[in-house]
Write a structure and sequence with these properties.
By secondary structure, the protein is mainly α. Helix content is 50%, strand content 3%. A two-stranded antiparallel sheet has the order 1-2. Helix 2 packs antiparallel against helix 5 and helix 2 packs antiparallel against helix 6. The longest helix is centred in the N-terminal third of the chain and has 26 residues. The protein is globular, with a radius of gyration of 17 Å. The termini are close together.
Amino acid sequence: MSRTKKKLLMVTKMHSKEQIGFFSDAYDAIYNRAQALLEEFNPCEIENGRCMSRMHDYLACCSSTCAYISREGCTTRNLRCKTFLCKDALNSNPKLKSRWERLEKLAFKLELAYPWTSKEGVLKSKEKLVKWHGPWNVKSLGGTNDY
């Protein structure tokens, strides 16, 4: 049994507050790993405020309707935005692509990658689900067969 599967099975036995803590820690770990991969591989190759595709400004990679975007960039730790890479950047390195896709898949499997939502917003949604439906189970986490 994989380490991820064991952790997901442990989550089903946790009290709801412990589950929120687990999701908070998982959010931070995935976010930090994505940042480390960006620093290691530099897939976007930002130069003079423009991305590698040279098709748009760096900030144009983000949605202009996002409430968290400023002239300096993102003002929050948004996991969905952090785990987004355009096709050119994603395909720039096979090793990066493999690692990135696993990381992105985990973020979606744990339902942590909400678009245009801060970490706090994601955790509030998780808390509401616990109140309405009770603690998560492995099935509600999307299963564990892929890990």
